[in-house]
Automatic annotation (TrEMBL):
<feature type="binding site">
    <location>
        <position position="147"/>
    </location>
    <ligand>
        <name>Zn(2+)</name>
    </ligand>
</feature>
<feature type="binding site">
    <location>
        <position position="144"/>
    </location>
    <ligand>
        <name>Zn(2+)</name>
    </ligand>
</feature>
<keyword id="KW-0456">Lyase</keyword>
<dbReference type="InterPro" id="IPR001765">
    <property type="entry name" value="Carbonic_anhydrase"/>
</dbReference>
<comment type="similarity">
    <text>Belongs to the beta-class carbonic anhydrase family.</text>
</comment>
<feature type="binding site">
    <location>
        <position position="93"/>
    </location>
    <ligand>
        <name>Zn(2+)</name>
    </ligand>
</feature>
<keyword id="KW-0862">Zinc</keyword>
<dbReference type="GO" id="GO:0008270">
    <property type="term" value="F:zinc ion binding"/>
</dbReference>
<feature type="binding site">
    <location>
        <position position="91"/>
    </location>
    <ligand>
        <name>Zn(2+)</name>
    </ligand>
</feature>
<dbReference type="GO" id="GO:0004089">
    <property type="term" value="F:carbonate dehydratase activity"/>
</dbReference>
<dbReference type="GO" id="GO:0015976">
    <property type="term" value="P:carbon utilization"/>
</dbReference>
<keyword id="KW-0479">Metal-binding</keyword>
<comment type="function">
    <text>Reversible hydration of carbon dioxide.</text>
</comment>
<dbReference type="InterPro" id="IPR036874">
    <property type="entry name" value="Carbonic_anhydrase_sf"/>
</dbReference>
<dbReference type="InterPro" id="IPR015892">
    <property type="entry name" value="Carbonic_anhydrase_CS"/>
</dbReference>
<dbReference type="InterPro" id="IPR006311">
    <property type="entry name" value="TAT_signal"/>
</dbReference>
<protein>
    <recommendedName>
        <fullName>Carbonic anhydrase</fullName>
        <ecNumber>4.2.1.1</ecNumber>
    </recommendedName>
</protein>
Length: 238
């Protein structure tokens, strides 16, 4: 006598096996497919070229050479994939919009923003994803003049003032830059601290993430940095 219960069990197993094979095919495409895909990827460019595009975009922005763009034309294509030319670690300051500053549009930049452009664990994970899955050739740390987070860290360090909430964690992340800047005996302590904070972020990206560090060592990724001037719109590169 036939046990009809076997059929649905087998059907479910067959379905799971088929689904697994389909997912595996998507996750691990053939070598030829990977090579063809890489050749067609818009952001498969040298890190130096990505940086030059950012610089050119900032020149246009600072000169006021900005044009109204209809982003609806490429919106459908962006639903299928993204190919950003750079990752930007920026301060969360509302006056510092990376896409506008660098003259880029939707899909061009992979942006992570925190007050003081600090390197957080979530930020590291985000850029690791951008390196391994999106193939970005450049990560750029963008500080800015008059940064309130750095100023607060500087003041708290000098006055030894305790702040509420999670602010002490943020200031602790910035404090090493303030200490380094102080050792330089600068004429403008805040400006020096902002610069050192960008350099600190660049260093932390490479040293706190093996994925990012290895990509840099292999020449596949470059870490850059600069200071955006709120008054002129110009980015000074470090």
């Amino acid at each position: 006598m036939c046990d009809c219960r076997i059929r649905p069990i087998l059907s479910r197993r067959a379905f799971v096996a088929g689904a697994g094979a389909s997912l595996a095919a998507r996750a691990f495409p053939s070598t030829r497919a990977r090579a063809e895909d890489k050749a067609a990827v818009p952001n498969a460019i040298p890190p130096s070229e990505a940086l030059e595009r950012l610089k050119a975009g900032n020149v246009r922005f600072a000169a006021g050479d900005t044009k109204d763009t209809d982003f609806s034309a490429g919106r459908a294509a962006l639903t299928k994939a993204q190919h950003p030319i750079a990752g930007i670690l920026s301060c969360a300051d509302s006056r510092v919009p990376p896409e506008i500053i660098f003259g880029q549009g939707p899909g061009d930049l992979f942006v992570s923003r925190d007050a003081g452009n600090v390197v957080s664990n979530y930020g590291l994970a985000s850029f690791e994803y951008a390196v391994t899955s999106l193939g970005i050739p450049l990560i750029f740390v963008l500080g800015h003049t008059g940064c309130g987070a750095v100023l607060t860290a500087l003041s708290a360090s000098m006055q030894r003032k305790e702040l509420p909430g999670h602010l002490p964690e943020l200031l602790k992340a910035i404090e090493p830059a303030v200490i380094t800047a102080h050792g330089r005996h600068p004429g403008d302590f805040l400006a020096a601290s902002i610069e050192e904070n960008v350099r600190l972020g660049m260093k932390r990206l490479k040293t706190r993430s093996k994925i990012i560090g290895d990509a840099v060592m292999a020449g596949k990724l470059k870490i850059g940095g600069g200071i955006y001037d709120l008054g002129t719109g110009v980015v000074t590169y470090l």
